[in-house]
Design brief:
Strand order of the largest sheet: 1-2
Oligomer: single chain
Order of helices and strands: HHHHHHHEEHHHHHHHHHHHHHHHHHH
Structural class: mainly alpha
Number of strands: 2
Helix content: 55-70%
Largest sheet: 2 strands, antiparallel
Radius of gyration: 32 Å
Low-confidence stretches: 1-6, 20-78, 140-176, 576-589
Length: 607
């Protein structure tokens, strides 16, 4: 108790010392800075490049410049010149003789119990903050993703960021709690300094610090400037501590899950700052992010900050770094989702950055091929080979799904890039060794639906929002035709080939029926002719061919004749090569796993 009281007195004296402007204020010779925003701006200018927290030049230089205050209530309290002189002498004594600042600057020399008491005193010094419900991280038993608060910011002042004076003390709604927001801002800086100075005892200090940061970020009625400082400080802690304390990555990165809980107004006003800190975090510490939930939080923050137009370029740089330098099986799907998000936003709001966003598609396709090649000769066990094969196939399927989604985008350039990437993905499936069942699903569920949907919009009122849809449909016809021709020997072995063939016929018929398009009619007829010849040579397209309660021979020629009168059985070579005739066989279906499970299993292969 005595130790806690002593540390509480030190913190209180330190707060009073800095409120009295005992140290030099950056940006104002001999005059304290008036607002938290000014303090942070001055502190940023005084920091060493790359340090982020500004603690390298000693406590007084880094903290005093950040937190020197001017308190109207304090000035009014001392009316006479004599009393002001006495106060100045007392402050000088605290500063020069008692050296209270050394308690924080040299806290790494404190014993464990004393250090814990100091942290507790710093946390409690401003007064009890309004406490949110206990934090349960997403993914934990019973945990739910926290939603942004309904209101926040400065209840006892003005909106954050205008730099005007504000009340220093706020009486919380109940009337029983009094919080000094400027003291809370100061103590937050002190807390982060102490944590950085004691990184070797991070496991001891992090739980109460995390709870305090969560209370600030998720609390209701918290000063907006303090909330922003807590979120930014948390990101900077991760930047500084992850490279030197990789074993503490999990508890540190749990803090990323707090940032999306920011009040919407605070998040909007600070989007650029958060985007800059996320970029720095990804560049410095991405190698230490080894959990799928952590990557999900990082990608979520990158997308969240990109909503503000001014922050979009910086957020794009963060995503670009992930895709170019930090892709792993754990974050591949997340990076692909984020890339589609950025492409769609760039097409609508940032046309100058659209081309750079589209380049991400090629990078994502190339990484999948490179990762598969890196493990192809790694001597995997039979069980690992099954995992590897399933992971490759699921990643490829999701890539095709996202590209198919972009193929229906209103922007012509986006659709063109998507169909070009689909061409590459179809060809790469052979090199990757994608399972035939996945290729079948990719065609039936990912490629044929956008082909049919766009065909119905060609030269119609519904297609006004999709200019040059005819060109995109022709490109999709080529993609489907190439996929079928490349993998037809494997596809005919699948139990669902009859259903796939009927879907292909319907899609080609829809393309051929597009209003006023001779180009699509010719493209669909040529694609179908090649498929019919190959199926016949394989011994599949025969008068006896049936399935799904259809006579597939008759149904095929009926549909073919609607597309072109030149497509008839007479075009086929009557001789069939028996060596190429392959009867359909029932094959074991590959297990169906969720993408997160597949990604986790694939990541284990790379370690």
């Amino acid at each position: 108790a005595a130790m806690t009281a002593a540390n509480g007195g030190n913190v209180a004296a330190g707060v009073k010392l800095h409120k009295a402007a005992a140290g030099p204020a950056a940006g104002a010779v001999g005059r304290p800075l008036k607002s938290a925003r000014q303090r942070r701006a001055a502190g940023a200018g005084a920091r060493r490049p790359g340090t982020g927290m500004g603690v390298g030049a000693g406590f007084l230089r880094s903290v005093t410049q950040l937190i020197a205050l001017q308190e109207p209530e304090y000035e009014a309290k001392y009316a006479t010149q004599v009393e002001k002189e006495w106060e100045a002498a007392a402050v000088d004594s605290l500063h020069n003789k008692c050296a209270i600042q050394d308690v924080f600057a040299d806290s790494r020399f404190l014993k464990q119990e004393t250090l814990q008491a100091l942290v507790a005193a710093i946390i409690s010094a401003p007064g009890p903050l309004p406490r949110p419900p206990p934090y349960s991280p997403p993914g934990a038993p019973g945990g739910q993703q926290q939603q942004p608060g309904a209101s926040g910011g400065r209840e006892a002042g003005q909106a954050m960021g205008d730099g005007s004076p504000h009340k220093l003390v706020n009486r919380v709604a109940s009337g029983t709690l009094i919080v000094d927001w400027d003291a809370a801002d100061l103590c937050l800086d002190l807390l982060l300094v102490v944590l950085l100075r004691n990184r070797d005892r991070l496991s001891l200090l992090w739980p109460p610090v995390f709870d305090h940061l969560a209370s600030i970020i998720r609390g209701k009625g918290i000063d907006g400037s303090l909330v922003a400082a807590a979120a930014v400080g948390l990101l900077r802690l991760c930047q500084r501590l992850l490279p030197c304390k990789p074993e503490a990555a999990e508890p540190l990165l749990r803090g990323l899950q707090l940032v999306p809980s920011l009040d919407p107004e605070v998040a909007w006003l600070n989007a650029e700052v958060i985007a800059v800190e996320m970029l720095a975090l990804i560049q410095v510490a991405s190698v230490h992010i080894r959990a799928q939930w952590a990557w999900a939080s990082a990608c979520n923050l990158i997308k969240m900050t990109s909503v503000r137009p001014e922050a979009f370029p910086v957020s794009l740089e963060a995503l670009w770094w992930v895709v170019v330098h930090s892709l792993t099986p754990l974050n591949y799907v997340l990076a692909l989702e984020a890339s589609v998000w950025f492409i769609e936003r760039a097409a609508l709001e940032h046309p100058k950055l659209k081309e750079r966003c589209l380049l991400l598609l090629g990078r994502l396709t190339a990484w999948l091929e490179g990762w598969a090649a890196s493990l192809a000769g790694a001597g995997l066990s039979p069980e690992q080979l099954v995992t590897f094969s399933n992971a490759k196939s699921e990643f490829w399927l999701y890539l095709v799904e996202m590209l198919g989604k972009l193929a229906e985008h209103p922007d012509v350039q986006v659709r063109s890039a998507a169909t070009a990437a689909l061409q590459s993905a179809v060809v790469s499936a052979e090199v990757l060794g994608i399972l035939p069942g996945s290729i079948e699903r990719g065609l039936k569920e990912r490629l044929l639906p956008p082909l049919q949907a766009l065909s119905k919009k060609v030269n119609t009122k519904a297609g006004k929002d999709v200019p040059q849809a005819e060109t995109t449909v022709a490109e999709l016809v080529r993609v489907v035709s190439k996929a079928m021709l490349l993998y037809l020997p494997q596809l005919v072995q699948q139990p669902g080939f009859s259903s796939l063939w009927l879907a292909v016929l319907d899609a080609l018929a829809a393309a051929a029926a597009a209003i006023g398009s001779e180009t699509l009619l010719e493209a669909a007829a040529a694609a179908l002719q090649n498929l019919l010849i190959m199926l016949h040579e394989m011994g599949v397209l025969q008068p006896s061919w049936s399935g799904l309660q259809h006579n597939l021979w008759q149904h095929t020629w009926r549909t073919a004749h609607k597309i072109s009168s030149n497509l008839s059985p007479q075009m086929l070579n009557p001789t069939i090569n028996p060596a190429r005739q392959q009867p359909q066989q029932q094959q074991q279906q590959q297990p169906s796993l969720s993408l997160p499970a597949v990604a986790a299993a694939a990541a284990a292969l790379s370690t």
